[in-house]
Amino acid sequence: MIWLVAKKEFHAHLISLRFTTGSVILLALAALFTFVLVDKYSARQDSYNQLVARNNEELQGVMTYQNLRPTVFRAPEPLAIFSAGLSGDQVESAEVSIGSVPTAGGGFLDGNPLLGVFQDLDISMIFQLVVTVLVLLLVYDSVSGEKENRTLSLVLSQGGTRHQVLLGKLAGCLISIAVPVTLAFLAAGLILRLSPAVSLSVSGWGRIILMYVASLLLAATFCSFGLLVSALTRRAADTLILLFFFWVLTVVVVPDCAGSLAERFQPAISAEKMESDVQALESEMQKDLESLYRQNRLPGSVSDYTESWGWYHRFAHRSAILADLKRKGLIEPLRAGYAEKKWQVRKEYQESLKRQKHAAALIALLSPAAVYESVMSGLARSDMANTDRFYEQARLYRVQLLDYLRDIEALSSLRYVTTAALEQLYDPETGGDYFALRDKLFEQKEEPLDLSSMPRFVLQGESLRKCLFRTGPGIALLFFTALIFYFCAHIAFSRYDVR
Amino acid sequence: MFGSIVLKELIANILSLRFTLSLAISLVLFTAGSVVFVQRYYQEMREYATVTNTNLQELGQAAEKGPAVLAQQVQTIRTKPLPTSLFCSGFQKSMPNVFKTDVFRTFLPAVQTTGNFYISRSHDLDWMLVVTMVLSFFAVLLTFDSLSGERERGTLSLALSNSVPRDLLLAGKYVGALLTLVIPLALGMLVSLIITSLSGLLYSPLEWLKIGVFILVSLLFLSIFLLLGMLVSSRVSSSATSIVVMLFLWVVTILIIPSGCKLIAQKLVGTPSRAQVEKEARDAHLAIWEDPNRDAKFGEFSGNWSSDWENNKRVNPPARARLFNAIADSYNRIYLDYVKRMEVQVETGRKAALVSPITVYQVLAEALFGTGVAGFRSMYGQVNDYRETLKQFLAEEDKKDPQSLHIFAWDVSMEDPRIFSHKPADFNSLPRFEPRESSLAESLKAAGWDIAILVILNLLLFAAVFVMFLRSDVRQR
User: Fold this and answer.
1) Does some domain include residue B297?
2) Are residues B169 and B237 in the same domain?
3) Lowest mean pLDDT: which of A89-98, A368-377, B199-208, B342-351?
4) Which of A336, A357, B310, B471 is the most core-located residue (most Cβ within 10 A)?
5) Are residues B211 and B259 in the same domain?
6) Are residues B200 and B329 in the same domain?
7) Inter-chain CB proximity A112 and B118 less than 8 Å
8) Which pLDDT does position B365 carry in this prediction?
9) Which among B43, B342, B362 has the least Cβ separation from residue A114?
10) pTM across the whole model
11) How far is CA A397 from the centre of its chain?
C-alpha cells in the first residue's frame, strides 16, 4: 500500500508543471554556478601557486636570519564551491616571524570590499532556495488539497491505513525530489571531474556524498513539515500561505538576521578597543626598545648595508657587528614577548567573537536551512573551525621555526646580522685598510642562507573522520527534525477529518 | 463604485491569514532591527568620537610644529555613523570606512569592521531588509491568486456582470492590494521610529524628507511585485500554476540575480589584491628614484641632500622637491587608480544586476541616504577635496613666513625651516575635515535614473496587466 501511494504520488509529481519548472531551474542553476565557481576556484588556485612560488623564491634569497620572515598560505578549498562559508575572494595568508603571532582576521578583507553589496552565492545556497520551494510546492496540497478534491476519503477507503498513506506520500515526495537533486549533484560532480584545475581525493568525493545526503535530509525536513501543515489545515490555499511564510522565515530571514541578533545579545569586545590595546603594547615596546638602544650603543659607524628593503650588514667594524649581535640577543626575546602579549589581546577579542558566533549559531538552530548551511560549510572545510585550524597551525609553525632558530643557535651566530665572516670584517687593532677590505669582500658573491633543514609549513586539513565528528550533530539534527515533523504530521493526520 | 471595490479588496485582504502573518513578521523585524540598531549606533558614535578626537589632538600637536610638519601629518578620518543607516545600512560592514591622508597622498581606504568576521552571512536588520525580503514576498502572496483565484471560484464573472468596467475592477484590485501593503509598512516604520526616538535619536527635517521619499520609493518597488503577481495571475488558468511561476520569479529576481552579478563583475573587471597594489606603488617609487635620466627630468643633483645645503653646490632643493613630489604623485595615482577600479568593478556588477528591481531599489536608497557604495564614493571624494584645501591653506600659511623659500614638497619641506615654514600655525583657523550630508536635490539627482526605471517598470507592467486582463476569459473553467 505504501509503495502504491508513493508510486502514484511520484507519477503525479513527475508530470506536474511545478516539478518540471523547479527541476529545470535547479539543474540549470546548479550546472551554471558549478561551472562559474570552478573557474573562480582555478583562478584562486593560480594565485595561490604564484604566491607560494614567490615566497619560496624570496626564502632562497634571504641572507641573514634576522630577515627570515616566511609567509604561509592556505590553499583554496575546491569544495568551497559547494559552500563558500568564510572563504573570501583572496588567498588567506599569515606572516611568520619572531615579532608577530599569526592571527585570523587580517586576510579576510583583502579583496574588493565594495563587492560586499552582493551576497555570495554557492551551490548549497541554490539548494536551500530552490529545493525547499520545490518540496513545499509538491507537498502542500497532499492532505488538504486531496480533501478538497474529495479524493482523500476515496484513497482511505482502499483498505490502507492512514499511516501507510501518509508514509507513501512522504516517500513519493522524497523520491520525486531525489531525481533533480541527484541529477544536480551528478552534473556538479561531472563538471568537477572534467575540470583540469580540480583534483579531488577519495575523501573529497566522500564529502560530496555526505553533502548529497545532507541535501536530501533538508528536503525530507521540509517535506514532513509540509505534510504536517497540510494535515493541520482545511484548505490547500491556507496551507500554501502558511508554508511559504515558514519558508521565508527559515530560509531567508533567520539565517540573515541571526548575526545581527547575536550582536545584540552577546556583545563582543569592540575592535576599536582591541586595536587600541594592541597599539598601547606597541608603543610600550617601542619605549623598551629605545631604552635598550640607549643602553647598548653601537661603537662607531656600522653601516655598509645593502640597499634592499630588508637590510642587513654587508661590511662593518668587527666590534660594531659583535655589539649589534649582542644587542639583537636582547631585542629579539623582547619582541617575542610583546608578540605573545599582543596575541593574548587579540585572542581575547577573537574568543569574544567566537562566543558571538556560537550565539548566532544557536539562534540559527531555529531554521533547518541554517543547520544545513553549517553542515555544508563544515563538510566543505570553509567554516570557522577550519579557518582557526589554519591559524592554529601557522602559530605552531612559528613555534617550530623559533625552535629551529634556537637549535642552530642562530641568535648567537654572526649570520644573524651579517653575511660576512668574522675575519673578513675590519678590526682597527689588527690593522689593515678599511676600504681595501671592503672592496675585497664586495667582489665576492654572497651566499644566501642554507635553509634546507628549516621546517616547512604543510597545512594538515581536517580529516573526514574529525569532520564527521563535528558535522554529525548537525546531520543528526536535520534527521531528527524531519522525524519529529513527520511524527507530528502522523498525529495530525490520524485526527484529520477527511470528509 | 471604485471606492467600494477598493474597500472590499482591502477588507478581504486584511481578514486573510497572509495579512496577519506578514504583519506579525514585519512588526517583529522592525522592532528587532531598531533595537539592534540603536545599541550599535551609540557604540559606533563613541568609537567615531574617540578616533576623531585622537586625530584632532595629533593635528594640534603637529600645528605647533608648523606647516611643514602639518603637511606630513597622516590624518585618520573615519566615516561618521549615520542615523539614517537604520533605513538603509548599505552593507556598511563591508564598506571601507577608514581613510588615511597627508596633504600629498591619500592612502588606500581600509575597512575597520564593527561586525564579526566569523559570521559569513549577516545582513543588517534595516528597513530595506524587511521591504525586500518580507514585504515583497507578501506582495507576491497577495496577488498571485487575485484574478486566477476569483476565476476558479467563479466570482470574477459575477463581479463583472455588474456594470463594472474591467479596467475599474483591475485598478480597484491593485489599489486595494497596495493599501494592504501600506499597513504593515507604515505600522512597522512607526514602531521603529518610536523606539529610536525613545532612545533619544532624533531626525532632522532633511532626514524626515528623505524618509518620505524612501517610503514612496519602497511602494514603487513593492508595486512591481504586486503587478507581476497580477500579470501572471491573469495569464494562467489556475492559482497553483500562478504561485509556482511567481515563487521562482521571486527567488530569481531577489536572491539569485544580485549574487550572480558578483561573479560577472569579477569575471569582467579584475582587481589586484591590496598587497599587489602596495608592491606596485613601492616599485614605482624605486623606478623614479633609480631612473638614469632622473637629473635630466627633475634638475641637477635632485637625489642629493646635505644639512649644509645653502653652501653645498651639489644640492639643488627645487630639483629635489620636483623629484619627491613626482614620487608622492605616483603613490597617489596608483592608489587612486585602484580605488577607481574597485568602484568600476562594483558598478559593473550593479549595472548587470539592474535587470532585477531589487538592485535599482538598493542603488536608489543608497543614493538617497548616502550609504553603501554611493556613501563610500562621496566620502572618498570629500577626503581628497579636504586634502587639497589643507594643502592650499598650508601654502598660504607658508607665504606669511619671510624666512621660507616656499618649496612645498613631500619629505623635502620637512628638512629645514628655511625651505618651508616651521612656524606654529593657528590651530583654530586650520581647516578640519567635516563630513557633508548631501541635500535632497543632490540625492534625487543622483537617484534620478533609478526612480525613472522604477516608474517606467511600473507603468509597463500595469499596461501589460491591463491588456492581458482585457483579453482574458473570465469564465470559470
Assistant:
1) yes
2) yes
3) A89-98
4) A357
5) yes
6) no
7) no
8) 93
9) B342
10) 0.89
11) 20
